From TrEMBL:
It is an enzyme of class 6 (ligase). It comes from Micromonospora trifolii. Residues 2-214 form the Glutamine amidotransferase type-2 domain. This is asparagine synthase (glutamine-hydrolyzing). Keywords: Amino-acid biosynthesis, Asparagine biosynthesis, ATP-binding, Glutamine amidotransferase, Nucleotide-binding.
Amino acid sequence: MCGIGGEFRLDGAPPDLAAVERMLPALASRGPDGEGRWQQGPVALVHRRLRIIDLSDAGAQPMVDPELGLAMVFNGCIYNYRELRDELTAAGYSFRSTSDTEVILKAYHRWGTACVERFYGMFAFALIELATHTLVLARDRLGIKPLYLAEGPGRVRFASTLPALLAAGDVDTDLDPVALHHYMSFHSVVPPPRTILAGVRKLPPATVRVITADGRSTDTTYWRPEFTRAAAPAMSADEWQERLMAALRTAVRRRMVADVPVGVLLSGGLDSSLIVALLAEQGQTGLATFSIGFEAAAGESGDEFHYSDLMARHFDTDHQQIRIGAKRFVPAVHQAIAAMSEPMVSHDCVAFHLLSEEVSQRITVVQSGQGADEILAGYDWYPPMANVARADAVEAYARVFFDRRHDALGGHLAPEWMLDHDASLEFVAAHFAAAGADTALDAALRLDSLVMLVDDPVKRVDNMTMAWGLEARVPFLDHEVVELAAACPPSMKLAQGGKGVLKAASRGIVPDEVIDRPKGYFPVPAIRHLSGPLLDDVRDALTARPARERGLFRKDYLEELLDAPNARRTTLGSNALWQLGLLELWLQRIGV
């Protein structure tokens, strides 16, 4: 796991080395174990390293192979790199390291851009063909690893984080009105390629972009599950359960590939508990597990230690409870905001940031349970989609998921920021209209798995863990698990209140008390119920001079929220004031 950056010139000028060098400090937390830089012809590359595979200097980046005429920087992990290395060795390639980075170089030389289809893992990389000056950018199927881009006159810059591009300079920091509409309507999700800033874009997941020396650019989407039954044979409920559990066993085993110990973030929910159980089943002993809890607020509990402790005792893990008191909380909120590449309203960010800080002091790699709810229908907005006609799916989805409908948004955004069209509904409609997705629920799950999941929980985990040089791996987002879940009949996923097929498959592996417990979340009550110093910080941000000059929100709406900070909730129960405050806190943090 690492931080990458670079510049590719399209006008014959040399790259701006000073600008690229300025990216490195902004990437430092993603790679605390070393840094590297390389420049040749129209390209300059920089890299911050976190040593996970091949801890020697032979695995350092940027990695250059003069014989093959290739150079690259890479962020992520290719879990099947050893198998690919054996295949490439048999084909005549020789290796000077034991790193997965070198495997990508050789794989690209042998198979071209199609090499990504052979990778099991999470990755974002930039590769340059030295002879042709062709740049290849690629991102993994589920967008687990980020890649941001900023284009300017005669050049393209890229980096693992948006702040790294800002540090390089010369970025259009005007707000993107369409992205703002998505942020306010589409549950704070800004789908790719947009970000909230007009001058920064992100490479979509499952995409390879090839940019030639003359500036021509082509994108190839190399993976997209269909969410239909045609891709799977008719199977009984028991057979679906067996196939799902077999795929998860493989996914968990793959994610143990490392030259350092691997632990688990154990929330006490079914998803992370199942990872612990499967690792124990595979012979892991003394597994390091971690859970976090906060002080209660407004009568709402701030921890789920009962369930995580139960799991730790049941499987005899080396468990650590992390308790966060009030004095530590508010500073942690601002630290989490500083770690965000984009504004992320979920209060889980603070939990993951604090958890990662503690975990990184003991271990470098963890497995985490993100993704199960999106691929297996675990959220409460899925059951209302079950009996909706496919033709009515767009409106039904917007009704249960959108924070605000377009008409209502006119009463919240200042007139100059309002669009004359419903950009968020149009985006959902276009996504739902694509081929595949047999039912309304299939269409909702496809959108959430391929878009919402990537730009909310997945991005959240990457940003918060990498802020502390901690690598998080997500077995539920193994692409074979996602493909299987997509083909599974919706009724099996909705059973037992959601994730029914997973709950049934987990019987006898995970204690029933964990399987049958009420649905839980990372509880952070002090954000759901704003008060005290954090409310003061939100108020200050929304009334500060930059916010007044920006003028995003209607004055009467702001006053209404500030007068009753916890009265207004979005469709999915988030604090409406926090959504506005978080955006301004983030914009002011990055200096916009």
